[in-house]
Amino acid sequence: MVRLTEDQLISRFFAPLAILPGARGLTDDAATLSVPAGQHLVVTTDALVADIHFLADDDPDLIARKALRVNLSDLAAKGARPHAYTLCLALPPGWREDWLQRFAEGLGVDGQAFGFALLGGDTVKTTGPLTIAVNAFGLVPTDHIPRRDGARAGDTLYVSGSIGDGALGLLARRGDAKLAGLAETERDFLARRYLLPQPRTGLAPAVLAHASASMDVSDGLVGDLAKLLRASRVSADLDLAAVPLSPAAQAACDLDAALVETSLTGGDDYEILCAVPAEQRSTFEAAAQACGIAVSPIGTVVSGHHAPRWRDDEGNDVQFVRGSFSHF
Amino acid sequence: MVRLTEDQLISRFFAPLAILPGARGLTDDAATLSVPAGQHLVVTTDALVADIHFLADDDPDLIARKALRVNLSDLAAKGARPHAYTLCLALPPGWREDWLQRFAEGLGVDGQAFGFALLGGDTVKTTGPLTIAVNAFGLVPTDHIPRRDGARAGDTLYVSGSIGDGALGLLARRGDAKLAGLAETERDFLARRYLLPQPRTGLAPAVLAHASASMDVSDGLVGDLAKLLRASRVSADLDLAAVPLSPAAQAACDLDAALVETSLTGGDDYEILCAVPAEQRSTFEAAAQACGIAVSPIGTVVSGHHAPRWRDDEGNDVQFVRGSFSHF
Predict the structure, then answer these.
(1) Is B30–A53 a contact, with Cβ atoms under 8 angstroms apart?
(2) Cross-chain Cβ contact B49/A80 below 8 Å
């Protein structure tokens, strides 16, 4: 098999994705990035390694889209609109052109869907697993974006969408026996949520306008919430029953109560966790409803440096064995 | 040994490098990047994999600095001033804290030397080799930066510094017998040039002001020059004897004439190759001299789509077996 050179590979697969004028069709060594007047640039970067952040035999289309979406999720949590990204791709021995074509198609699909254009990149070979580093650029119309450290006592804590699908979806993807009692459609739903997270891009303007603090949930709700509270030097009272579960995740937890902890401490949710001051609750909820993204209040920020208190529906304290999932 | 968590690792080693306000001390999920009025952002990214782009047992301080410098070299060739970077680091099994500390020190040394601040990043583990992806941000006071495709017939082609030290330095670093006849100081000089390339940041304003086309030489002068000419739809007459060689590289080529080809087609020069219109030659040379960076005219751009012509000092055509080095 005649291998494409790096230049051929770029022009065939990646140049069509580089639609911003500053990317110059990826024919140069650097791009220019213009920031419209009145806008500010938000920058985030996430790397993914095969068999750590995704499975090497996942569909390349989905691997590509996940690589973009985990970054889009960070932008959304900061209230930013997607703009552009760079991509570093380390290809393992034996990579195939058809694999790369599917990968590039995935980038194209989500790039178009989210208004997220390829700005530049680098393709190298590696003797190790496929490794993908995406550097994402978003735009916000203010230089005051919601951070982790702005939560104040009295704020309501919200999460978007549903929690636990990603962690349960990894089990489903692996054919774990714990989910054998679920319907196939439920397992498929969960696996899909693991493979293709849904960044809450539509919610970004509401978060920007109303949240006092915000982050995306990627390493488990319990641990990420603790990080947000610690950064804000506050604590919280949380209602376990208020954590939104999808019907499939609920079914899994009904089958095996240990999966509640998996759901709340596992990774790969890519939902938004944010704190909203009491007087802005109704406008935040209305804005979320207007963009069709569910947001659920799960508790209240309180003063103090103690660990956040999770209570079940009988008012009993709940402890989690594992605070947070870490890909690291 | 108790391993640091990712958060501890960030706060201990990387947060001190994040001096821009928008980086928020790496305590958040994203950074903001302000672009001063009248400035434009130049973005480039390069990934390095152990034992492909550097040797895994190179000094971690030098690995870090090389990772920054290959990106700084791209910025310099585009006339941009260094501003900030993000870093994705995939650490192999068995990484050690003292390794990471040395690595971070290297980032700190060059970050300070070049005014290049850490803006954000991601640290992941890998089952493969150490992998480093740097996304670099530079600033230019214009949106018209020198590209590969602007060379015109009559322009003079210049290269900065000296050519071939990097490729010969890799041989030196590996203890290759071809260099056994050199003095130890010469081998050390060459190895150092491989380990620690010198981005021509000081030359950036002169390149921005005077070059019609510019790129950095990273994959060998012969191949990179051919790319610049192809992009510009022109050709060139080149004078082999005018290619600047360091005394150590000259000594190596005197020992073994085959090393001339290694020098001109090997990688890792990280010098600037640029085309300068005839009427700007003297001001370009004066500007280069003012910033203390040698620039050497190596030939002239001519019309036509034929392969560039390299001639030796007797006027004979020189052919290169290998056009260009590729890390890919």
Answers:
(1) no
(2) no
- Taking one residue from A and the other from B, the number of pairs with CB-CB distance under 8 angstroms is 208
Nearest to B215 among A29, A53, A89 (CB): A29
Does A242 lie at the interface with B, CB-CB under 8 angstroms?
A: no
- The CA-atom distances, in angstroms, between B89 and each of A132, B49, B61 are 11, 10, 14
Residues within 8 A of A (CB atoms), B 18-77 only: 24, 27-35, 40-49, 51-53, 74-75, 77
- Residue numbers of chain B with a pLDDT score lower than 70: 1-2, 323-328
pLDDT of res. A325: 56
Residue spans per domain, chain A: 6-140, 148-318
Q: What is the 8-class DSSP label of residue A153?
A: T
Q: How far apart are CA B157 and CA B296, in angstroms?
A: 8
Please tell me if the domain spanning B6-140 has the same topology as the one spanning B148-318: no
Q: Collect all residues with Cβ–Cβ distance below 8 Å to B265 and sequence separation of at least 6.
A: B167, B220, B221, B222, B223, B320, B322, B323, B324, B325
Q: What is the CATH number of domain A6-140?
A: 3.30.1330.10
What is the average pLDDT value for chain B, to the nearest integer? 94
CB contact under 8 A, A6 and B48: no
pLDDT (tens digit per residue) in B18-52: 999 999 999 998 999 988 888 999 999 999 999 99
> Residue A144 class from Cβ within 10 Å (0-12 exposed, 13-18 middle, 19+ buried)?
exposed
Q: Does B166 touch chain A (CB under 8 A)?
A: no
Per-residue pLDDT at A323 exceeds 90: no
CATH 3.90.650.10 fits B148-318, yes or no: yes
State whether A29 and B328 contact (CB < 8 Å): no
| Residue found under tokens 């195939």 | A96
Chain B CB contacts of A143 under 8 Å are 32, 34
Q: Does A78 lie at the interface with B, CB-CB under 8 angstroms? A: yes
Q: What is the pLDDT of residue B316?
A: 92
Tens-place pLDDT, residues A126-165: 999 999 999 999 999 987 899 999 999 999 999 999 999 9
Inter-chain CB proximity A5 and B328 less than 8 Å: yes
Shortest CA gap A159–chain B (Å): 17
pTM of this prediction exceeds 0.90:
yes
| pLDDT, tens digit, 9 for 90 and up, residues A243-300 | 999 999 999 999 999 999 999 999 999 999 999 999 999 999 999 999 999 999 999 9
